[in-house]
Amino acid sequence: MAPTTPSLPHNTFLGSWHPGTPDGPVELKEWQLSTAWRIAENLSVNNPFYADHLGSLPTERSAETFRSLPTTTKDQVVADCEEHPPYGSRTTCDHADVRNLVETSGTSGQGREVYVMNADDEVAAVQMEATGFWWSGIRPGTRVLLTLPVGTTAAGLWYYGGLRLLGANVFSVGSYSTDRKIDFLRRFGADVVVGTPSYVQRIAVAAAEIGLDPKQFGVDVLIVAGESYEESWAREIELLWDATLYEQYGCTERAVAWTCPGGVLQDGRLGVLHFPPETAYCEVIDPSTGRDVQDGEVGELVVTPLTAEASPLLRYRTRDRVQWVAPGSCSCDRPLAGIRAGGVQRYDDMMKIKGMNVWPTQFDAAIFGVPGVMNYRGTVEVVNGRESVRVRVECLPNRSEAVLLEVREAISGSIGLRAEVQPLKPGELSLEIPEGFVKVSRWTDNRRPDPSPPQNAIANSELPK
Length: 465
Ligand SMILES: [Zn+2]
Fold this sequence. Notes:
Mean pLDDT: 90
CATH class of the largest domain: Alpha Beta
Structural class: alpha/beta
Radius of gyration: 22 Å
Oligomer: single chain
Distance between the termini: 25 Å
Number of domains: 2
Number of strands: 22
Shape: globular
Bound molecules: zinc ion
Strand content: 15-25%
CATH architecture of the largest domain: 3-Layer(aba) Sandwich
Number of helices: 11
């Protein structure tokens, strides 16, 4: 990679890179909406995919009429790329202007989405990551252990670019074994470790197994992405590393959200991930009605990237289930909307057990509500012809008998299901995840006749989805 001159946001509080971006909540929302409308107008005339998809636009340019525009789904993007190889009919830019390609993982069995980027798109993508890295305290020379592989998926590439843009000293160890990553930490130390929640825990547990205390590596900041977690987990992992936890949400379709300075835990509770101002026009809708949700309510994130010239998207449905946080709801006072930290789930993760629709979040709430529970994994399987739920729970050894009973009662009381519960020692589960950087789902569904690929076990080998 070419040398990069360190650069920082024009307005570090707001996270904007362009002097013209408004910094008041109302003006900013208007600017984002009018930019999104300009994109819609352009696509409806000049883009073969969207000219068909959008038809004629309404005359009024409001948030309500924008919400009436058709959404774009993963299936549509995948089909377009297959029918118009290799980049799809959405891609109208000259091939000589293409600088990069990212793709989604395709592990959900639905195929891979492909997005190419021109020079402006690339700059915008690394800037949106650099904004959050700046808020996390990364400055020129900050030592960052980047545990994501840098390949053709977005997160590794864009993280690497964003860190380099700020002038960080990046240890790009994503393709190394956990042991070698620990060797790196031991030899060079690090100020910041970036990875999934499971993986930063795994490094700590693996270090402890060879007699090293994670605190001795001098890490001040952990940045996690890709899995949901509970408040209690956030507190535990901070204690384990003696570091402050930050979080990033990101999708390949070009929306990100980042914790503001101070980290995930604000006054001891899970705080907010803010959408950087120039990245995307974000909506959170009730997926059944298409209406906007209110502040604090849960819905599906729908994104319109504001700089995606080579592979544009309009109203992309992420299938990510988020809790909407309106601008001004965070104690940092940024005029930026956002989502609740720790809580991003996939709509596709809902399970039907004994005829009931059950979300992993319901199990999370029941199981983590029991004092002493540190982590768990659940399995749904068929035993003697009956559906059965098995939960393995990490807890302190002196609490294991009580935890076993209380977890069973909590699941039956709040969800109405009987579960077989097995206590484990702290850290046992993190040693089960494969080497490298993987998103881990807490739930495995073994009822499906074809176990390959596992739908819920290791949901992904890359980030973002
Ligand atoms: Zn904030």
